[in-house]
Amino acid sequence: MSYMDFLRSKMVIAKETGFDVDRNDINPALSEFQKDSVIWALKGGKRAIFARFGLGKTIMQLEFCAQAIRKTGGKALIIMPLGVKQEFIHDAV
Question: DSSP string covering 36-87, please?
Answer without folding.
Answer: HHHHHHHHHSS------TTS-HHHHHHHHHHHHHHHH-S-------GGGHHH
